[in-house]
Structures are given as structure tokens and as C-alpha cells.
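Q: What structure does this chain adopt?
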Amino acid sequence: MSACLVLGATLLALSEPRFTLSWLHSVERVEWHEDWALGPEGLRLLEYRLRGSGAGMEPGPGAVLRAGWWVSPGDLVVPSLLLASSGATPSTWQLCADGVCHQLGAVAGAPIPLRPCTEDEAFALTAALPD
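A:
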């Protein structure tokens, strides 16, 4: 394990400190993908991709069109993200890391916090993992 991510009340061990968060926009029904990295300062947006535009989904500065996707460089560092969990959107959040994808927010509920683990959380998770 080289990184740890907190998803609500769950700790997720990652072999690489990167993950992709994706969803279908609730109004435009357009795919959106974001690549993130975990770091000491929090979550760093590396790049985002979208299949169209509209309703606040315009490609950012420096965006290029590649194979039907607008690809934009990331320029954001945040301590955490808060994912809405209405259960009423056309898709769930999908978080993919280490070749495995997790569906989040499928049913209505409290927002789902997403943040890097603290050192204590990472230590506890490492101690609980099988050798």
C-alpha cells in the first residue's frame, strides 16, 4: 500500500496515490471524468475530460479535443471533496483505482466525504491488511 483514501466511513488502500472519479452530468447527460492524485496538501486534480458542454460544463482553458473528449489540464488542490448522494441522478459516482471501480451515491443519503487518510488512519489500515 502506498496511499490511503477515506470514502465516507470506509478506508481504501491504494497501491498508487491516484484515482479517477467519473459520473454522468444530471442535466446534460454528458460523461465527466477527473484524474486525481493524493498528496501531502490533499487532493490534486491532474486532468479532466468531458464528452460535451453546456449547463456549466464548458471545457477549461487549454482544453483539446481528443477522440471525442474535451481534455483539460487540472489546476486545483483541495483538502477534500464532498460527493452529493441524492439517489435521483442518472448515474452514481464511480471511483476507480488500482483497476477496481466503486459505485458511490446510488441511494439518497448524506453527502460522501472523500479525502486522503491521516497518518493514523493509514497506519491502522496497514496493520489490518494481511501480509
